[in-house]
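Exercise: predict the fold of this chain.
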Amino acid sequence: MSTTAVAARVPREALLRFRVRAQGLDAAAAGGRADPAVLDLGVQETGPDGARWALAVRGAEPTYDGRLLVWTLRGAPHLYRREDAAVVAAATAPWSEPDAAKRVFDASRPLRAAGIPVLDALDHVARVMREVVDRPTAKGELSRALTERLPPPYLRECRPCGAVHSYEQTFRLAALRAGLELEPGTSPPVLRRIPGWDGPAASVPPSHDVVRGVLRLLGPATPQQVAGFVDAPVKDVRARWPEDVVPVEVEGERRAVLAEDLDALRDAPPASGVRLLGPFDLFLQGRDRETVVPEEEARKDLWRTLGRPGAVLVDHQLVGTWRPRSSGRRLRLEVVRWDGGDHPVGLVEEAERLATFRGQAFAGFSD
């Protein structure tokens, strides 16, 4: 991206409308999509309303069939198309030694002290995991096996557990390198071999390039914002920054968007409808929170460190939060609207859809 190019001004409203359209959040009203684009970047599976609900609100079939659940970006479980396993492994792997060190957090220190590159360590852990998991294996069982087989620089003393085991992020990031997937619906997680696994792909197509994926699905961003999303060093993101981007200015901040998306960004049509987004929905995962939710108190309410709620999306605006209040087969929702206004038209229908998805009956809103 040229630093001298004139940046087109993009209103905040246009960015939000673009994000709604790019992520298929208008899909249900349009009849739905069997294969939403968010599966290119991965759909995070966290909490009871995780990946399947994220697919449902985009009008897609909320099923694990034909899909792959693996630990990838930020060490979180994500859902992808099963046929994309090798490409996903290549696309989401650390890009460099500094990147690998950043992604495994404090696990890098003992490895470096022992003269072991983090990338080599991930490969070694992956080989051991592959040997151990010759059948579906619970995470705890695999962790114990790693403790028996790995040397001290790979292990930590975990005070909460009262045990010595592999570092968590090393464990998670090595799993896909080992060709292991997560069995959906298991807690604690159960890992199993990916059928037909032959290692990561030799190259990554543009459709699955992570940097391009962030720009394509979240809209205009800076290298710093993309790095925050991936949990990678900014230097590595800059080294992979697409050449086919153009500068735009959003709320006074200079960002970039893929050139092919500029017209769609400028001309994104108005969105309509109400969506109950899960706490870790991709719409909420951008690192431009001040743009998405300008009010500081609202941001604090939505992006809590613990007990994060879901978000109420009305047309293209986030207007409040929601929390489930279940009692047996009945679901009530606690909805907080930041402006203190009434529940938006369409919220009851969306709440009923969520209850049906959960196998419950909607019993109204909590005070």
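Check your answer against the key: The chain is about 35% helix and 20% strand.
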